[in-house]
Every structure is written in C-alpha cells, then in structure tokens.
Amino acid sequence: MQKITLITLIFWSAVSFSQDRITGDPITFTKSWIIKAGVNAVDDSNKWKPFDFLSDQSSTAFSTPFALGVEHRFSNANSISLFGSLNKWKANEGIIDGEVLTEDRSYSSVDLSYKFYFDHFFINSNWLDIYLEAGAGLFFISESGPFSERVTKFSQNLGFGSIFWFTNTIGLNLQVINKFSREEEYSGNQVQYFAGLTFKLYKKDFDRDGIKNNDDQCPMVAGLLQFNGCPDTDGDGIEDSNDACPEFAGKAELNGCPDADNDGVADADDSCPDKAGTKDNNGCPVTIQEPIPVSEPEVITEVGQPNEKVLERLNEYAKTILFDYSKSFFKEETYKVLQSITQIVKTYPDAHFIIEGHTDSLGSHITNDRLSNDRANAVRDYLISNGIDPSRLTAIGYGERRPKFSNATKGGRDQNRRVEVKLKK
Predict the structure, then answer these.
(1) Boundary residue ending a domain (175, 202, 229)
(2) What is the pTM of this model?
(3) With contact defined as beta carbons under 8 Å apart, do 280 and 269 qualify?
(4) Average pLDDT of 215-222?
(5) Separation CA 375–CA 354 (nearest Å)
C-alpha cells in the first residue's frame, strides 16, 4: 500500500510540475524525433492485472530493467516507434506462465508500433500527450544472459501511455503494453511497464529564425514566418526578393523603394527627391523660367552661313553655359552668355543650328540621356523666347555617349558636361 501511495504522489507531482512550466500554451506541432530512456518491469504470470507489480514486484522481471526507444512523430496525431528492453526474473521469485522459476531467466525484446495521440482533441495544451499504441515484436528468454542461447517468440502488442512535458523538449513517459503470444511455450500474456525520460529532437533550423529547414524557403538567412522564412531587411513589409530597395524602407507601389517627398516618384529616379514634383518632370516641381530682359544691341544681319571663326566663338560661349547641379535650370551668370549666343544666331537668319547636350558618365544612362536632352532644350527654349524662329533650331541630348575627355578624372568629367552649338547642313 505504501508503494502505491508513493507512485501516486510521483505521478501527480509530474502533472503539477508540467502544468506549472507549460500551462496555457496553445497546441503547436513540429515534426520531430523522440528518444526515451528509462526502466521497465515485465509481468509474465499469465494474469491480466496491469498494476499488480506495484504491490508485489517479486514475481516480475525487474533486476536489470533498462529500456530505450526512438520515435518519429510525423503528424500531430501519428507516430512510429521502435522500443527495446532488457530485464531478468530471479530464481524462486519470478513467475512465467503461472510457474515459479527455479533459476534466473533473462528477458529482452524489440517492438515496432504505431501510436495514435488523441489528447489534443480535448486538451488545449502542450504539457500533456496521451496515446494508444498497437504493433508487434519479438521477445527473447534465456537462462544465462540476454545474448546467450535463447528462445525467440513473436508477440502482438496493445498499449497506452502518456508524456508529461516539463519543458518543450524534456518530459516523463509512463507506458503500459500488453503482449499477446500464441506460441506453445511462453504463451501467456506479458504486461510490460515503462517509466523514463523523453527527449524531443526538433528538425534543424540553420538560420535560427524559428522556422524549420523543411518549411523555410530561405534556410540559410534568418527571416519571417509571413514570408516562409525569407527576410525583410528594411522592415517595410516587402520580402527582400521582391524589394527593389531591400536596405531602405519604401512603399509597395514603388516596389519597396523610398519616396521622401511623397510625389509618387522613387527617390532613385527623382531628380528632386526633397521637393514634391510630377512624374512628367522626373519628380521635380514644374517651374516656368522667365527670361531675364537684357538690353540688346542692334543686330546687323549677314547673308549666308557663319564661317568657322563664328562657329568657334559660338561654341566658346556655349562652353560657359552653367546649370544647377543635376538640373536644367540656368545659373544667374549664364544669361549674358545666352544673349551673346542669341546675337550670333540672329546675325545669320538663313542658318539652321543643332544644339547638343552632353553629360559625364556619373549616373545612369537613362538619367544622363534625359538630363542632356533637357539642357539642350533649355537653350533652345531661351533662344526661341528671344525671337529666334523655332524651325531654325534642333535640340538633341546625347547623354554620356560622346565624351571629349576622359571620365576617369574630375577635370575630364567637368569638361564633358557641356552644350555645343553646330551648324545644321
């Protein structure tokens, strides 16, 4: 009676401890391997009294009671288990098939079984697992030792058990298996009891983001569950693989790129990232630049085309046309130069001119093409606003495609940022 009371106290202590550690957690499941090790007792007295050994252990095999098992739990309710055990009946105490043994008998067994876990159907917690199991096995009985000459028998097994989890990976396993044998010798029912520690081995998580490798689309880089384990470095809610600017938080409509001035143009494509503008004007505000009135000297026109010296002087003026950085707006000191160019163009009313815009190699090809075209057209627009016939002027932007100097040096880049005026032939 004292032994029954002791076992009862141990059982309820395990339950209470498990509840204290894990109570309240919702049911979760991850495919896992389970290893268990502990002690076992085998009752082969030909009586079906599942807990009889608690009050009388002398008739059971309990001298070398080692047991070891491995289990693969492949779903929330299902698993496959392989279980092995060693034990011994003592002479003049142990009973097999209802007869008291006259000499020691060693016992060993190997069992393969299917387990059905059903606790989650009525208990919403991770601290307790309850299962039924069914399977088959072999047991071996010998006189001198578990690996000496022995009798081998087949059994059909039914049982039940429970696991009380102290933590998410360590628990106490209690199990009872009834083994039915129809062999001529050792034909009685064997009842095997097991108690031991259970260790759960989760599948590996290389990047330690809490998502197992089999379920992780980016197993080598820590990520988020919502992106199946893939990262969102800038935290803008857009997975890095779909984010055009993965290191800068941005907007979904701009493929994850930022837009500081909220004008709908991504900063990388915005010529004025700090000022709201329009898409048609590359993110810059639309500004109408009024020509500054300058008193014009009387222009004496000449018949025919300007000669080489006139064109050389025209391009010397053009070289000094200055723009705001990365813009097509003239600097204040440029207007006097533009007036000189206007006078030359007016001197030859029959001549047609090409205004070319050029940039250095910094920036993207698209940006440089646009900028060179805008600057060439800015010169053309100025000349038109000062009385030049639009049909005489053609503006072309060549971007970085026609450098006159090396773009490897600052001086070379400065000289490649230019406007040229050529005679249209």
Answers:
(1) 202
(2) 0.45
(3) no
(4) 84
(5) 13
Do 72 and 193 have their domain in common?
yes
Report the amino acid identity of residue 33: W
Q: Which domain covers residue 366, as residue numbers?
A: 308-423
Identify the pLDDT of residue 159.
94
**Cβ atoms 180, 143 nearer than 8 A:** no
Of 166, 186, 202, the one marking the end of a domain is: 202
Q: Is residue 412 part of a domain?
A: yes
Is 226 part of a structural domain of the chain? Answer: no
Q: What sign does the dihedral 290-292-294-296 (CA atoms) show?
A: negative
Q: How many whole angstroms separate alpha carbon 331 and alpha carbon 344?
A: 21
User: What is the per-residue pLDDT for 20?
Assistant: 40
What are residue 99's phi and psi, to 5 degrees?
A: -115, 140
Which of 328, 321, 234, 333 has the alpha carbon at shortest distance from 272?
A: 328
Of 107 and 124, which is predicted with more confidence? 107
CA-CA distance, 366 to 401, in Å (whole number)? 12
Tell me the per-residue pLDDT of 324-333, one tens digit each, with 9 for 90 and over: 666 777 777 7
Examine the domain organization and report whether 16 and 149 are in the same domain: yes
